Amino acid sequence: MENKLNIKTQNKKIELLAPVGDERGLKAAVNAGADAVYFGTKSFNARVGAAENFDDKTLEENIKFAKLRNVNVYITVNTLVYNDEIDKVLPLIKSVYNMGADAIIIQDLGIIDIVRNNLNIPMHASTQMSCNNLDSVKLLKSIGIDRVVLAREMSLENIKFIRDNIDIELETFVHGALCVSFSGQCAYSYLHGGRSANRGACAQPCRMEYTGGKTDYPLSTKDLMTIDIIPNLLESGITSFKIEGRAKRSEYAAITASIYRHAIDLVLENKNIPIEKYRESLMKIFNRGGFSQGYYYNSKDIFENYKPSHDGEYIGEVSAYKKNKIYIKAEKELNVYDGLSFGDSGKVGMQISDLYKDNVRVERAKGNLSFSAVLKNVNIGDEVYRTTDKLQMDEANKIIEGDNFKHSLNLNCIIGFDNDKIKLTVNSKYDERLNSIEYISYYIIQKAKTKSTSKEDIFNSLSKTGNTVFEFENINIDFKFENPFIPVKILNEARRCLIEKLENILIQSKQINYNKEIYNEKNINYPNTDIKVLIVDSEEKLNLYSDIHYDKKILLPKVYDENMINLFESKKIDGIILPHVTFDKDIEVIKNIIYREEKLKDMIVICNNLGHIEAFRGKCILWAGIGLNAINDYSVDFLYKLGADLVVSAVEAGKSLKHTISVKEGFIPAMNFAFCPKSMSIGCSKCKEEDIIDHNGNTVIFDCVKLYNKTSFILEKIKNKSGSIYYYLY
Description:
Helices cover 27% and strands 25% of the residues.
C-alpha cells in the first residue's frame, strides 16, 4: 500500500487512545505504545457492569503509572446522572483531577455546567452526546469543551467539513464495536427492561436474535476496523484515534494498540502498512463476522452479521468425530492450547489440550489434524474457527509484562553549593518539563575526620534509581567543598526527593480556565409547563385529532420541505420536531427554510441535538427534545441557559422533572439510525410487506424521515402517567 499524505494535522501530535478495563489492561495499553488511555471508576461510566474498572484504592496508583510514562489519562464519567446522585459525582471528578487525570469524558449537560463553574479539569464531550454536525461542535467549544468525541456514524466527508471550519481537538473511534443506534440516542434497552444505555447498563437488545430478515441478527453490527484507511483518517484532521474495548480482555488491548501504533507510525514515515498481516492478527483477537469500515465510507456491509459474538479465524471443517476425537483438515497451523468454536452459532467451543498430525503428537501443525474432545452438537462438515491463538496470547503477554520505559536524564551534582549544601539539577533532551529541575538538600556538609566521601561514593548513591521510570544517563559531580563527609542516607534521600519532584511534575494535569460568564449572565424565566401537546407524523393524523383540544400540535414530517411551513402558516400546526440524526447538510435544509422568513419566529422547533439549538437560536421558538437527555435539574437549567424556551425531560427521567414536560403516551423513536438496518436486511421496497420480529414475538416498528439524508428509527410504545406530550406516530 503506497501512502501519499497531505496531513492537515502534520505539525500536531497524533494521539493513539486505548481502552483500559483493569490494571493489567492498563499495562497492556501503555506498554503497547498508546499515547493516552481511558478508563472508568466503579460508578458513572458507560461500562460500569462490563469492565472491572478501578476503585478508590487503585485509581491513583494507576493514573500515576500511566502519567509517569508520558501517557495521558482520561476518566469516563459518561453517563446521565439522577438528581440524587449529583452530590457523589462532583467529589469523584475533584478526586481524579487531584490525582492527575488529564480530562474527563462526559455526557450529562448538567455535569458539564457544574464542572465549568467549579473546576479547571478539561472535559471531552463523549460520543454519547451525539455530536454529528458542525453546529453541535461550535456550541460545545463555546462552553469550554476541550475535545469532541464525534458520533461514530460520521463519514470522512462529515469530519473533514468540521475540521475545516473549527479549531478544536476531534476524536473518533478507529477500531472495535459499533452501536447500531446513534450513541446517546437509544432508549430501546431501557424501554424493554429498565436497563438504560445512557446510564451504563445497556442489555444490548441489538445483539439479540430476531426473525424476518436475511440474518438472525439484523441489528447486530460488525466491528469497526480501519487499518487499511489510516492515511485517509490522518488526512481528515482527526486528533485522536480511539480504540473501543474497555470490557474486553487485556490481551485485546495489547494487540490492537500495538498494531495501530505501528500502522500510524508507518504512515507518518511514508512507509507501507502490512495490511494483510495486521488484519489477520486483528481477526484472531476479536471480530464479529469479519470487519467493516463503519460509517467512514457509509459501508453497506455493516449489518451483514450472522452472529453477535467473536467469530475468530476460519481454520477448516470437521472431517470426522469418533472415539472422543475430532478430525479436521486445517488450512492454518493450530497450536496446543488454541481455543476453537464449531458451527455457525459458535456456541460450542473448547481448548486444544493435545494435537496430532497423521496420528503423531505435535505442538503446532496444519493439514490432517486430530485432538481429544468430549463435546455435544459437533457434526461432520461443521466449520471450525480459532477463537484464541496461543502464540498471539504469548505475544500479548510479552507486551503486558514488558515495561521498559525510562526517562533518560543528565544529572549535575554540586557538593558545596552555597558553601555547604548539596544541589542536584537535572536536564532532559526529550522532555522540556524536566529541564532545570533542582533539589537543594537541608543537610550541612561536614569536613571528614577520617575518610571523606569520594566521587565514586556519590555516583553509586545517585545512580540507584531502582524501579523508578528515571535513569541518569550522565552524572556530573562538581566538588566545591574539600574533604566532605556525607552520610549515604543523606545522598539517598537527596536522590529520592529529586525523583519525587520529577514525578510530581509528570503527574500534573492540564488545566482549563472556563469562561464562567457565558450562559450564566441572566436568570432563567421558567415557562408554563401545564400544557397538553400532540405530536403526529402526517396531516391525515392531525385531522384525526381535530376534535380534541391540544395546546400545541407538532409535526414530525416524513419529508422536510415547504409543506410543513404551509401547515404552520395555515395554523394547522404550531411547529415541527427535528430528527435525532442530523448531519450538516440536513441542518442546511432546515436553515434554508427557516432563516428566510421573519414570521417563522413564532414557530416551535423541537431540538434533539445540540446543533439544532446553535443553528436555530433566535430564529424560532426552541424546545429541547428527548434527544438532549435532560435528566436532572442541572441539565434542565443548562438547556434553558443555552436558549431553550421549554425542555422535554429524557425518557429515563422517570418522575417528572421540575420545569419540564414529558412524554405521556404513544410511540417514540427509541433507536435512531444513520441508515436503516431493515432496509439492509429486507430492502426498502419490502419494508411494509415483511416484518422483523423480536424474541417475544413482537413486531419491530421501523420508520424513516427525509432531510438531505434519509434516516430511520425504531418506534417503541411508551406510557407515563405524569407526562403531557402525546406522540402518535404510527
